[in-house]
Design goal:
The chain contains ten helices and 14 strands. By secondary structure, it is α/β, with parallel strands linked by helices.
């Protein structure tokens, strides 16, 4: 038996064999290993559960049609809570939970990077397909940390084993293998653990909290597509009736696609940042000024404090120098040694502050 295939064989298979299932949700979820990550309380599990119900019921996902099929939910922690949330999501969508081809199993304790765990998930997926007659198109693992086993997520070799196992399951089943994951410790440095997770994923979806309590998501990576799809959603409470009484839960509602954001040119971005820095500098100067004058050194220090999110002291110095030049060109300030004097200019904002 040869260890290769020819291009002729590949072309023949592409033209005549049954096409592989490649997309579960267009622009969001391909068939393959995918990661859904974000900070605590941002709705990661809520989105995963809503996606499970949507795919199983053949509903639209943020206005997009789905590739319907069975869903296997692998709970790495709190499996009872996962069961309740799946029932709650179904009821909230006016669906009958018993009619949905959804299976729930506990994550194997040895970690999904092992051969035994991979075979256990594949066996469960096979049983689910046979029971419902629908192919398994989505496997959800919640969470990566709770299904990783005893090894460290920072270990590139262990991370590679985990992602290889996810990839093998996804290719075997022609399904999306969606892994719920956490952000880094400071909430800003992307996903927790090794860079391997990002590199080996076919898609990366980040969810987070916006201003005024809004929650949002963005496809940060799509291996075989443009990526960048954005969506918003609400997290709502719901009461679930059980034999032991009412249990409170959470569901995702109002899952909607966001309008695509036009990419900003480098020049436009630079101009916007300079305009913002100058506006901040002006407000700080207004606060410091006594009889229209302030110390330039004190003004600079206050601006540096306000720009603590800039990456370096050099970046803060450049921003201050640019703001000063801009305001001098507008005629809103004059500088004599360490004294900055504010003057009335043709700018209405300056006039309002100094008239």
């Amino acid at each position: 038996m040869t260890a290769f295939v020819t291009l002729a064989e590949v072309e023949r298979a592409l033209l005549h064999d049954k096409p592989r299932r490649r997309i579960i949700i267009p622009d969001v979820l391909p068939a393959g290993p995918c990661l859904l990550y974000g900070p605590s309380g941002a709705g990661k599990t809520g989105i995963a559960v809503r996606t499970a119900a949507t795919v199983a019921a053949d509903l639209q996902w943020a206005g997009k049609s789905v590739n319907q099929g069975s869903v296997l939910y692998v709970a790495g922690e709190d499996i009872e809570g996962a069961k309740i949330r799946l029932v709650a999501a179904a009821r909230d969508l006016d669906l009958q939970p018993a009619a949905l081809p959804v299976g729930i199993m506990e994550a194997p304790p040895e970690g999904l990077g092992t051969n035994a765990a991979r075979l256990a998930v594949l066996a469960a997926a096979k049983d689910l397909k046979e029971e419902w007659g629908h192919p398994v198109v989505l496997i959800i693992v919640d969470t990566l940390a709770a299904s990783f086993g005893p090894k460290s997520q920072d270990d590139a070799s262990a991370a590679s084993e985990y992602m290889s196992s996810a990839d093998k399951i996804a290719r075997k089943m022609e399904c999306a293998f969606l892994i719920v994951h956490h952000t880094g410790k400071d909430q800003r440095n992307g996903m927790r653990g090794s860079q391997v997770f990002f590199d080996r994923a076919d898609a990366i979806i980040r969810v987070g909290k916006g201003k005024l309590g809004t929650t949002f998501g963005k496809v940060e990576k799509m291996r075989n597509g443009p990526g960048g799809a954005r969506f918003s959603f609400d997290i709502a409470g719901i009461n679930v009736e059980t034999a032991g009484g009412i249990i409170s839960g959470q569901v995702v509602r109002n899952l909607n696609a966001c309008e695509p954001v036009e990419p900003e040119s480098r020049e436009a971005g630079k101009d916007r940042r300079e305009q913002t820095d100058a506006a901040v500098a002006l407000v700080i100067l207004q606060r410091l000024a006594v009889n229209g004058e302030a110390s330039k050194n004190a003004w600079q220090n206050a601006c540096f404090d306000a720009w603590a999110d800039k990456p370096s002291s050099n970046a803060r110095s450049r921003a201050f120098s640019t703001a000063v030049r801009k305001m001098q060109a507008e005629g809103s300030i004059t500088i004599n040694g360490d004294i900055v004097s504010m003057s009335v200019s043709r700018n209405p904002a300056h006039n309002e502050a100094h008239t």
